[in-house]
Amino acid sequence: xxxxxxxxxxxxxxxxxxxxxxxxxxxxxxxxxxxxxxxxxxxxxxxxxxxxxxxxxxxxxxxxxxxxxxxxxxxxxxxxxxxxxxxxxx
Length: 90
Fold this sequence. Notes:
Layout: H1 3-12, H2 23-32, E1 36-39, E2 44-49, E3 52-57, H3 67-79
Antiparallel strand pairs: 1-2, 2-3
């Protein structure tokens, strides 16, 4: 993970929950963490990370995620064993 990935990860876990993280930055973070990403039907994105699966809806027409989506991404990362503390040395 590079420094930008670490920043995005810390933003996802920050309080209050931000509503301005770019969806593309979240996808790049998933890729850096080793996730498998597949385009589903419509705006669905299927993610597999550490044997955990999730389906997210890509925001459109805006590029930023809303607070609810960021909370869902945070919950998925926690379930996959990913936290900012776990990835400080990566």
